[in-house]
């Protein structure tokens, strides 16, 4: 019987957050705190002729100014942590502060530390840097052309990597009944969690221990990488991420900045705080997406897709960020076929250096880029053969009886029932009724459109063996310790590092369910390398599937240990003792039972334990999943396009998601809402734009359009439940489905609305002017 | 995020404000609602030596009838304007524009005087005030002068305000019963007007006896669309006539272009908004 | 270090308690609340006055505390998220945010709640459209706003039930 799993339990983390008692990094105040500001290059590409820090240093209250030269031989380079095999990856050097040359507008050139934030800012303005501007290249396509300015001398042609997967027989295209080709631009996005990045570092010269509080999605990975950069052994380094105000991928990466703060704290023997300004975030925190994609699809007139060929140029920015090389390759290239059975498929990826902010994971990381292209291609194909896009999808779905299904790239989808989610969505939106309404509206000069996205994604990262095989420089298992105190109160230590996803609640639900104890008796601890043994963090929708499974496995271990103790207490055979709803019960003898928490007390007292049972009640599980998980579903967008202004209005949005067994439907809905809104953001508004000199023209919330509440109708959510067969909870993950599914659904809807104008494709974001120009045949804006 | 240092002065009344304005050395900036000035200072795009906070100057407050004009103190905040009964009666257009400014917090701080003196090319209020034929009342230690708003607004972030002058109030003629509408296409990020059109129509006996159309976001600063007004004044505003008038709303204007909207598109948008505003002010939809 | 003559004395009532301090005129109210009073519930999310996560209530109205100088609050009354609960009891807005899952990372939440508080003081029964318009004043990257809207509707219902 399920009691707490699947319930909309109210979140426990909220108790502190709604009263303003969260502990975000900038909230920390240590005695003797000092404040750092990083001086950043205003140029995208320039030689540093001279840096004069004397004026800054002379200002009262200024404690130190560091430049790249000061750090040579002191701080190691900032590494990338994903080295895909057979990709000829150019691991160029990324220094914590630039020496001689800056490679993007935002590249750090100096750091000032002062007694307070105001003085630090003043001093940063007083650092004089003389630059010799050099030609820059910002676009991936342009960067690989002959004669393009080089970002790194040791990466000829600006090629950071070249990677291929799968194969397609040219015959499939030569002999195809229908071939559809399209070039897509996946524009660059800026993650913009509402909390900017921040770090506080404190060094204890006595113990030589260094603590870094920081905005991290994965404190253990940060500890590992920072240890290398700083030359401080891991066992003397503690990384703490208390409350983190969103990440969306941008707080996975290891940046120079946190290392600089740590170094300053070590050098000055004072605590040092650094908080990014939003403008700095725009420049110096990793961006996402940014592909140019060329896609070819071969198919038959009856709607069968026979082959898919994908070639992309992925802009990686000026340096290889932590996970950057893996995002447009592994996380993208292996699932470009989406939820369709496509016998032949191939992906070719050029990863390109440019004079722009480094690009790394952004909510969905690779999978939105893949889903967008296949979902758009299916619509274009449907158009080409005059078939309903829904029918083309249905015809090519991996059928429910084909699971586990291995796609053309060797990825095995765990479970799924794609038609079921599609049917549910169709019913909700009354597809037939909509088409009639659309036809009617067109008569009146109103343009409605409907768009589908029947997505599948690969998450729950992941099997560590696969991580190794694909070059990820870490494991992807997860650690959990469930510690039962003598009083029966329980602490759960998890290596996942939630920052908004609510695992303090859902993990407690898992434990409450498994051990049959009250939610109030359970606390979930995360985000501290000194309190949690090990962990790989929160990203890739892995927290519940991997971290939650670790918790479940640890609980099972406790139950088994408890069973032996309980049997001993109840003078029964362990095989006769059942564990139900928190009690060990001698089967068939109703009165003879003992609670889990009573057993835990006995385990601690150890006055009378059965032979061979160790005292204490704590279990640790290191759960290594056997596969990824594959959430799927159908999202439907209905839009109206105003032909006068080109404005797209989202009229309705229906999301049917299958994330396996639901643990907490309220939290699932929240994840879907947030993800969808971000996904719609990419479709309609968001986009980072550089000018030819490498200046970011969308460098603040004044230009970069974040989704606002008033742009949206209520999002309608629904679900199907197809448990994942290979983890103990049956869960799949729902953190990224929104951004993965929503973008193509909305773009498909707009293209559907624009059918009467014979517009084949428009690249995102579908801003009013772009749509208006297309409608009125005005060509692209020059 | 952090402004450069400055000297802070907070006059208690108008005389003190004018005296300090006359006497202060170096660059002095008046601080009203602060929602244009402080953002600039935080980014160090403005760095006045002295900031003169006029919030407590009583003479800059209040909305009252003075004969045949409505007197609106410079320190009147948008939220006050949006709810004021006199404004609702005699100058509803101003309230309409005020309600579209930024967000609730901005409307709680931003002022009429600040918006006019800042002369942002994409600001809403100046367009509405222009359509209302507002006059500005300027004060300095030397005395008082009045100027039509259209002569006060000179260009982007540029006005006829003298360095030692304060905008004390605006005066708007009473327009009770006139049809009024403000149509704005907000930038999805900043919320400012990509284009905004204020329309005011005095309809009598089936004809537009007087028409005022003012445009923001489109030109260097808010302006009156003279060609449009000319086409429409005296006529009955059927759909075709409105279209004709609206099509001339950016006549002779050097139209702004930015990342979000080219000049072509912005001109077109102004025309679309003008037609909508005119229809609404005329009462045809 | 600021020179003595540049500093200004202020007295501000924050969450019902009077604070006197000497501040540099350029200090933002947000920084003063956070750094001087230790009221770190008020967050800072941008440097262009757009995001609203710094929202507090000043003299009864929602303001962005990053766009108000501490000296401008002199003589005024400030309510921050820390002052929303009274006598150990959550304000209906807070209860509703929790009940409706109106927060995820919680970073925008103090600002969102203060904005909601001020909205309901002025308009006790806002429509969904009015709520969404008022939310122009806050950027939330996590929730997609839907549960924030729901929370505000719920808070309105609860406030009425209590009144
Ligand atoms: C997030 C945000 C969104 C916004 N969105 C919009 C929008 O959609 N539409 C819009 O129109 N505006 C918008 N604004 C601007 C807002 O309306 C400003 O408040 C207004 O333009 C300036 O008014 P203020 O009282 O804040 O002026 P301040 O910032 O105090 O002053 C502005 C300028 O005017 C001068 N000044 C002010 N008052 C006087 C006076 N009485 N005499 C002489 N000089 C004076 C100042 O010295 C300064 O140079 C937005 C602002 C923000 C922060
Ligand atoms: S911090 Fe963004 S508006 Fe105040
Ligand atoms: S809850 Fe994270 S920004 Fe709103």
Describe this structure in words.
The complex is a heterotrimer of chains A (782), B (285) and C (163). Chain A is of the alpha+beta class and 782 residues long. Chain A folds into three domains: 28-134 and 200-246 and 251-275, Alpha-Beta Complex (Aldehyde Oxidoreductase, domain 3); 288-461 and 627-775, Aldehyde Oxidoreductase, domain 4, CATH 3.30.365; 477-623, Aldehyde oxidase/xanthine dehydrogenase, molybdopterin binding domain (Aldehyde Oxidoreductase, domain 4), CATH 3.30.365.10. In chain A, helix 17 (543-569) packs across helix 18. Chain A is globular, with a radius of gyration of 27 Å. By secondary structure, chain B is of the alpha+beta class. Chain B is built from twelve helices and 14 strands. In chain B, strand 4 and strand 5 (69-73) form a beta hairpin. The radius of gyration of chain B is 19 Å and the shape is globular. The mean pLDDT of chain B is 97. Chain C is an alpha+beta fold and 163 residues long. Chain C folds into two domains: 8-83, Ubiquitin-like (UB roll) (Roll), CATH 3.10.20; 92-162, [2Fe-2S]-binding domain (DNA polymerase, domain 1). Chain C is 33% helix and 15% strand. Chain C is built from five helices and five strands. The chains are: A alpha+beta (782), B alpha+beta (285), C alpha+beta (163). Chains A and C meet through helix 1, helix 4 and helix 19 of A and helix 1, helix 2, helix 3, helix 4 and helix 5 of C. The structure holds flavin-adenine dinucleotide and FE2/S2 (inorganic) cluster (2 copies).
Which key features would you list for this structure?
heterotrimer, A: 782 residues, Aldehyde Oxidoreductase, domain 3, Aldehyde Oxidoreductase, domain 4, 21 helices, 24% strand, C: 163 residues, alpha+beta, Ubiquitin-like (UB roll), DNA polymerase, domain 1, 15% strand, binds FE2/S2 (inorganic) cluster
């Amino acid at each position: 019987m399920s009691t707490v799993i699947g319930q909309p339990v109210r979140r426990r983390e909220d108790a502190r957050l709604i009263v303003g008692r969260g502990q975000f990094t900038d909230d920390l105040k240590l005695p003797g705190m000092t404040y750092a500001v990083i001086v950043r290059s205003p140029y995208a590409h320039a030689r540093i002729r001279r840096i004069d820090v004397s004026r800054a240093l002379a200002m009262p209250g200024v404690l130190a100014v560091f430049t790249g030269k000061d750090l040579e031989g002191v701080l190691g380079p900032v590494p990338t942590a994903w080295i895909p095999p057979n990709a000829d990856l150019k691991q160029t050097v990324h220094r914590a502060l630039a020496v001689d040359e800056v490679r993007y507008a935002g590249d750090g050139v100096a750091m000032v530390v002062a007694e307070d934030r105001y003085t630090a800012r003043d001093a940063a303005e007083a650092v004089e840097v003389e630059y010799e501007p050099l030609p820059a290249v910002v676009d991936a396509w342009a960067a690989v052309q002959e004669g393009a300015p080089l970002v790194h001398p040791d990466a000829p042609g600006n090629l950071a990597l070249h990677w291929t997967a799968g194969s397609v027989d040219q015959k499939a295209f030569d002999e195809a009944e229908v071939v559809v080709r399209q070039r897509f631009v996946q524009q660059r996005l800026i993650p913009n969690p509402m909390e900017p990045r921040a770090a506080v570092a404190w060094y204890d010269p006595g113990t030589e221990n260094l603590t870094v509080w920081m905005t991290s999605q994965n404190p253990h990975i940060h500890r590992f990488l920072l240890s290398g950069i700083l030359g401080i052994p891991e066992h003397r380094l503690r990384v703490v991420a208390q409350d983190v105000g969103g990440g969306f991928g941008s707080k996975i990466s290891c940046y120079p900045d946190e290392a600089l703060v740590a170094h300053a704290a070590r050098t000055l023997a004072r605590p040092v705080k650094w908080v990014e300004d939003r403008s700095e975030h725009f420049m110096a925190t990793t961006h996402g997406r940014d592909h140019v994609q060329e896609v070819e699809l071969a198919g038959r007139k009856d709607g069968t897709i026979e082959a898919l060929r994908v070639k992309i140029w992925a802009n990686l920015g000026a340096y290889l960020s932590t996970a950057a090389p893996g995002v447009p390759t592994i996380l993208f290239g292996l699932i470009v076929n989406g939820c369709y059975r496509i016998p032949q498929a191939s992906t070719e990826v050029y990863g390109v250096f440019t004079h722009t902010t480094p690009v790394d994971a952004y909510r969905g990381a690779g999978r939105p880029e893949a889903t967008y292209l296949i979902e758009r291609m299916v619509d274009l194909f449907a158009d080409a053969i005059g078939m309903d896009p829904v029918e083309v999808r249905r015809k090519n779905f991996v059928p429910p009886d084909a699971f586990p299904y291995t796609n053309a790239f060797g990825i095995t989808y765990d479970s799924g029932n794609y038609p079921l989610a599609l049917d549910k969505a169709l019913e909700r939106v009354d597809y037939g009724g909509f088409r009639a309404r659309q036809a009617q509206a067109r008569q009146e000069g109103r343009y409605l459109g409907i768009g589908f996205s029947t997505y599948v994604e690969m998450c729950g990262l992941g099997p560590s063996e696969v991580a190794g095989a694909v070059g990820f420089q870490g494991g992807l298992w997860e650690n959990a310790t469930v510690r039962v105190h003598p009083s029966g109160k329980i602490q759960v230590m998890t290596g996942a590092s939630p920052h908004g996803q609510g695992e303090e609640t859902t993990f407690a639900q898992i434990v409450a369910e498994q051990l049959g104890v009250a939610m109030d008796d359970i606390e979930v601890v995360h985000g501290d390398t000194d309190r949690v043994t090990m962990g790989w963090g929160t990203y890739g929708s892995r927290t519940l599937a991997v971290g939650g499974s670790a918790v479940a496995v640890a609980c099972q271990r406790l139950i088994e240990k408890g069973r032996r103790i309980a049997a001993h207490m109840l003078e029964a055979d362990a095989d006769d003792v059942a564990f139900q709803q928190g009690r060990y019960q001698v089967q068939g003898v109703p009165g003879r039972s003992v609670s889990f928490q009573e057993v835990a007390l006995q385990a601690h007292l150890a006055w009378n334990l059965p032979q061979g049972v160790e005292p204490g009640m704590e279990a640790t599980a290191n759960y290594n999943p056997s596969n990824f998980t594959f959430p799927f579903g159908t999202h439907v967008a209905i839009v109206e396009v105003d032909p006068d202004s080109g404005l797209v209005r989202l009229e309705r949005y229906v999301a049917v998601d299958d994330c396996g067994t639901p643990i907490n439907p309220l939290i699932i809905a929240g994840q879907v809402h947030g993800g969808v809104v971000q996904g719609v953001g990419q479709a309609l508004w968001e986009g980072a734009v550089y000018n030819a000199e490498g200046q970011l023209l969308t460098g603040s919330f004044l230009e970069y359009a974040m989704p606002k509440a008033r742009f949206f109708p209520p999002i309608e959510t629904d679900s199907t439940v197809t448990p994942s067969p290979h983890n103990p909870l049956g869960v799949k993950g729902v953190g990224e489905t929104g951004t993965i599914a929503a973008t193509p659904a909305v773009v498909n809807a707009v293209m559907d609305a624009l059918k009467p104008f014979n517009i084949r494709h428009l690249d995102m974001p579908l801003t009013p002017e772009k749509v208006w120009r297309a409608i009125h045949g005005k060509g692209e804006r020059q | 995020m952090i402004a450069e240092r400055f000297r802070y002065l907070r006059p208690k009344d108008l005389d003190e404000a004018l005296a300090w304005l006359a006497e202060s050395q170096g660059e002095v900036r008046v601080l009203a609602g602060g929602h244009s000035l402080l953002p600039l200072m935080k980014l160090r795009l403005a760095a006045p030596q002295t900031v003169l906070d006029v919030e407590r100057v009583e003479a800059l407050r209040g909305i009252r009838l003075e004969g045949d004009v409505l007197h609106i103190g410079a320190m009147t905040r948008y939220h006050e304007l949006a709810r004021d009964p006199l404004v609702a009666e005699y100058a509803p257009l101003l309230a309409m524009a005020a309600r579209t400014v930024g967000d609730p917090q901005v409307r709680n701080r931003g002022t009429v005087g600040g918006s006019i003196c800042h002369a942002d090319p994409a600001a809403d209020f100046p367009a509405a005030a222009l359509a209302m034929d507002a006059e500005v009342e300027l004060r300095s230690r030397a005395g008082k002068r009045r100027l039509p708003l259209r002569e006060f607004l000179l260009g982007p972030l540029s006005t006829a305000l003298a360095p030692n002058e304060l905008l004390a109030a605006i005066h708007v003629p009473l327009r009770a019963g006139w049809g009024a509408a403000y149509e704005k296409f907000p930038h999805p990020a900043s919320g400012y007007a990509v284009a905004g059109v204020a329309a005011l129509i005095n309809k009598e006996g089936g004809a537009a006896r007087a028409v005022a159309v003012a445009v923001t976001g489109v030109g260097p600063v808010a302006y009156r669309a003279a060609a449009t007004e000319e086409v429409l004044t005296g006529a009955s505003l059927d759909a075709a006539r409105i279209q004709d008038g609206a099509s001339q709303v950016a006549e002779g204007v050097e139209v702004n272009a930015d990342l979000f909207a080219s000049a072509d598109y912005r001109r077109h948008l102004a025309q679309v908004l003008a037609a909508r505003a005119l229809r609404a002010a005329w009462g045809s939809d | 270090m600021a020179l003595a003559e540049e500093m200004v004395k202020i007295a501000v009532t924050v969450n019902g308690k009077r604070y006197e301090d000497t501040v540099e005129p350029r200090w933002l109210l947000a920084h003063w609340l956070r750094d001087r009073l230790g009221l770190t519930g008020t967050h800072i999310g941008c440097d262009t006055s757009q995001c609203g996560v710094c929202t507090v209530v000043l003299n009864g109205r929602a303001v962005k505390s990053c766009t108000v100088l501490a000296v401008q609050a002199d003589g005024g009354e400030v309510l921050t998220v820390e002052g929303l609960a009274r006598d150990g009891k959550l304000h209906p807005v807070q209860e509703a945010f929790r009940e409706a899952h109106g927060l995820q990372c919680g970073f925008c939440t103090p600002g969102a709640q203060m904005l909601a508080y001020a909205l309901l003081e002025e308009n006790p029964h806002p429509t969904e459209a009015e709520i969404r318009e008022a939310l122009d004043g806050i950027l939330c990257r996590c929730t997609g706003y839907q549960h924030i809207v729901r929370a505000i509707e719920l808070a309105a219902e609860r406030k009425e039930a209590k009144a």
